Amino acid sequence: MHTLELALLFLIVLFPIADLFLEKHKFNSKSAEYVKSAAMLWAVTGFLLYCFFEGSLSVASPQVLPTVSWKGWSAIALFVVFIAYLVFVIISMRKNPEVRKQVLDAFNKGGDSLNDILPSSWKEYMLFTALVSVSAGLCEELIFRWYVFNFIDVHSHWAVALVVSSLLFGIWHLYLGWQHVIKSAVVGALLCGLYIYTESILIVIVAHILMDIYSGTVAIFARQKHT
């Protein structure tokens, strides 16, 4: 194994510890926190891409588009349904205060760390969408679904790769609390399954971005009359 790849693996494994430390030293501004989070993700991803272009990784370049066209169309159909569901949720919250209250209660049960990263104003929402959602979708999918999954798959079995990469993905969200580690691991497994099925890193990147945008959008509409 190349020294650079070994350093990359250590960085990925130790990242949650650094994240926990930084979680205790937050900026007062959510916007500043968004920039910090994105910068950390891009630092790891930048090193990953540097290692790749240096030829230091034991994995092949990611497959961007599905090898079979109908899988791509299936993914597009899934995204359309997902967006339609988001619109339905927004309309439901605007028409029914009880639905909005239920959504707010669900966010509150998620803990302070979750509430702290979700937007409370339209300015924060725009930054959350353009910076956090896009950065998380791009960076985390390249790190976990492309690199970590394929690295373990090369040295073991795809099922082991799915489980271990998803668990590590969950641990990366430890700063949100253990319940979110489990939830994130499940989401990671679903995204990994989608990656295996479609054989496309682009599709899982878009899926991840849409999921994060969904969280931010629901949060801002739920909080509109409560901030």
Radius of gyration: 18 Å
Spans of at least 5 consecutive residues whose pLDDT stays below 50 are none
Strands, count: 0
Strand content: under 5%
Percent of residues in helical segments? over 70%
Mean pLDDT across every amino acid position: 93
Give the overall form.
globular
> What is the CA–CA distance across the termini?
52 Å
- The tally of domains stands at 1
Largest sheet: none
Order of helices and strands: HHHHHHHHH
The helix/strand class is mainly alpha
Question: DSSP helix count?
Answer: 9
Keywords: Membrane, Transmembrane, Transmembrane helix
Protein name: CAAX prenyl protease 2/Lysostaphin resistance protein A-like domain-containing protein
GO biological process, one term: CAAX-box protein maturation
GO molecular function, one term: endopeptidase activity
Describe, in plain words, how this protein is organized in 3D.
- With 227 residues, the protein is an all-alpha fold.
- It has one domain (3-223).
- 81% of the residues lie in helices and 0% in strands.
- It is built from 9 helices and no strands.
- It has helices spanning 3-23, 30-53, 69-95, 97-109, 112-117, 122-155, 158-171, 178-198, 201-223.
Summarize this structure briefly.
The chain has one domain (3-223). 81% of the residues lie in helices and 0% in strands. The protein has helices at residues 3-23, 30-53, 69-95, 97-109, 112-117, 122-155, 158-171, 178-198, 201-223.
Mind sketching the topology for me?
Blueprint: H1 3-23, H2 30-53, H3 69-95, H4 97-109, H5 112-117, H6 122-155, H7 158-171, H8 178-198, H9 201-223
Helix pairs in contact: 1-2, 2-6, 3-4, 3-9, 4-9, 6-7, 6-9, 7-8, 8-9
